[in-house]
Each structure stands twice: as C-alpha cells, then as structure tokens.
Amino acid sequence: MAAKIQVPDELKQDLPPSRWGKTLAATPIVMTVIATMLAGLASSEMTKAQYDRSLAAQLQSKAGDQWSYYQAKKLRSAVAHNSLDLLAATAETAPLDPAVLTGADAATVAALAKNELPAATPATFDAAVNGALEAVEGSRPEPQITAALAQIKPATLASALSAAQAAALAFDSATKSINKASDKFDEALLPGDKQVFRNFSAGRLRYTAARYETEARLNQAVANVYELQVRQNNYTAERHHRRSGNFFYGMLVAQMAVIVSTFSMAARKKSFLWSIAAAAGAAAVSFSLYVYLYV
Question: Which of 143, 149, 154 is nearest to 131 (CA)?
C-alpha cells in the first residue's frame, strides 16, 4: 500500500504560483491515489481468483459423485445382464404373462412383461454448451476447449445443469412405482409355480438392466455439465490471477511516478524529472485500463 504523500512547506515555496506549479505539486498526490486504486484492484482480482479456485474444487467433488453414480449403475446393469444370461443358460424361460401381474398398473406391466421403460427425455442444452461438451469429449486441445467455454455464460451452464438434474429426477420418479411393484411380486411369486417365477425373474432382470443403463446415461449428462463448470471456473480463476499480477505491476509503476515526482521537487529539476514521473503515471494508467477492459 502506497504511503500518503505530502509536499513539505519548504518545497512549496520553490513552486511557482501558476498552473504548472499547482500541477507539479499535485502530481505525487494524484499518483499516490492511482497507486492505491491499483493495489485495491490487484487485491480484489486475487480474491476473485481464490474464490473461483475454491468453487471449482467443490464442483469437482460433485462431478466425482456423479461419475461414481454412473459407474455404479453401469456395473449394476452389467450384473443384471450377466444374471439374465446365466438364467437363460441354466433354465428355460418364456415371456412373462401379464395376467400374472394381478393389480399392477400399465407402466409396471409394460416394464416387466414387455421390457418397455418409462420415457426418459434427455436434457436439451444450448448450442454453445453442446459445442463445449463435444470439445471435451473429443479431447481437443486445451486452447480450443477454453475458447468454447469463454462463449458460455455461467448462468447458461447453471441452466444446463438444472435441466440435466431434472431429467434424471423425472426418470427416477417414473420408475419408483415399478420398483416397488417388482419387489412385491418377487415376494408373492416365489412360493408359487417355479416356471412362472423364472419367467418373472427374467423379465425383472431385463427391466433392471435397462433401468440402470438409462440412469447411468442421465447421471453421465449431469457429470459432464459439472465438468464444464469446473473448467470454466478454473479458466476464470486463471484470468483473475493474470489481471491481479498486471494491476500489481501498474501499481509499482505508479509508485515509481510518486517517487520520481517527489524527487523532482526536492532536486529542483522539475521539468525533466516531472516529465519522467508524468510518463510513468500515464503508462501506469493506460496499462491498467487495458488490463481492466481487455485482459
């Protein structure tokens, strides 16, 4: 933080009471104000960078949870497929007679007897989000992925995440009644005819494998959007970090202008040293404006 600059009284006596003298006397004060403002901007940008890094870490944890769900459901789907293959290899099975599912609703009958799942509508994303997803999935160079993410507003990604989560929740809600009915029929049919139970078991395994496969794809969509948010926050953190460093360099130049302008009065070489101070101050302000607007 730059120190407050005051012009000593003995130096004020050497300053001409003209516009030039007033400008010369005000230069250290103006440069001190500019240096202080640049120091504040540098600190603010560094704080933003730290916040974005922290948020990216939290989002990465959430993305990891979704990838874990995806892997677990893919595994359960594979286990159900293997169990179905084993059942088909060791015993004869036939399509399940819907009449066996006494009292079941239409969705349960369709799922267990016809292997027809409830509709699972994938979330639809903005074209820019789809472009970024394709860039990540295609393992394109990092500059291309960063450029694609730069075109997406955080609010757009947040909307995409909400849509993906809503699609997963909608399918989960649609299958809850089927899951409960399946458990009920499993207990009811087990003591009865073995062939009927085998047919039911085969239908249930087909449904279970298809359900977990669909849920895995929906969880994958949520995880992909989380990954985009992680990358976007890391990109933003890097940008704030660069801006903080540039503002810090601008502050150093402004402080140099303070020192030089003070020495110009102390050494009574006002025109030459003041010109250097003015040039340094102008450079600091111009550079900082460029960083603020374009970096």
Answer: 149
* Nearest one of 1, 30, 37 to 261, comparing CA atoms: 30
Mark residue 6 as left, alpha or beta (left: phi above 0; alpha: psi -120 to 50; beta: remaining): beta
The 8-class DSSP code of residue 269 comes to -
Asked whether the beta carbons of 210 and 139 are under 8 A apart, the reply is: no
pLDDT tens digits, 138-173: 889 988 998 999 889 999 999 999 999 999 999 999
Measure Cα distances from 173 to 7, 22, 131, 169, 214 in Å: 75, 76, 30, 6, 13
Please list the alpha-helical segments (H only) found in 141-269: 142-150, 154-189, 194-266
Place 289 in a pLDDT band, splitting at 50, 70 and 90.
Answer: confident
DSSP string, 63-121: HHHHHHHHHHHHHHHHHHHHHHHHHHHHS---PPPGGGSTT--HHHHHHHHS--PPP--
Per-residue pLDDT at 114 exceeds 60: yes
- pLDDT bin (cut points 50, 70, 90) of residue 251 is confident
List, in order, residues 6 or more apart from 2 with CB less than 8 Å away: 32, 35, 36, 39, 251, 254, 255, 258
Q: Give the integer Cα–Cα distance in Å for 143 and 185.
A: 55
CA distance 194 to 201: 10
Cβ(14)–Cβ(268) below 8 Å: yes
Is 1 a residue whose pLDDT tops 50? no
**What predicted TM-score, i.e. pTM, was given to this entire model?**
0.78
